[in-house]
């Protein structure tokens, strides 16, 4: 899902480090009890925020 995707996945050039990023986002969600980028209302907003 876009909330957990590393920026490299959007560019389709990635390696195993994207798994570490996704794991970190899962840990963040567990610690905060909130979805990453919950302020965004659609995947396009998440893409813009992650790639900027």
Automatic annotation (TrEMBL):
Superkingdom, taxonomy of origin: Eukaryota
Pfam families for the chain: PK_Tyr_Ser-Thr
InterPro entries: Kinase-like_dom_sf (IPR011009), Prot_kinase_dom (IPR000719), Ser-Thr/Tyr_kinase_cat_dom (IPR001245), WNK_Ser-Thr_kinase (IPR050588)
Record field: catalytic activity: L-seryl-[protein] + ATP = O-phospho-L-seryl-[protein] + ADP + H(+); L-threonyl-[protein] + ATP = O-phospho-L-threonyl-[protein] + ADP + H(+)
Record keywords, A-Z: Kinase, Serine/threonine-protein kinase, Transferase
Keyword Transferase: yes
Protein kinase domain residues: 1-52
GO molecular function, one term: ATP binding
EC number: 2.7.11.1
PANTHER family documented for this protein: SERINE/THREONINE-PROTEIN KINASE WNK WITH NO LYSINE -RELATED
Protein name: non-specific serine/threonine protein kinase
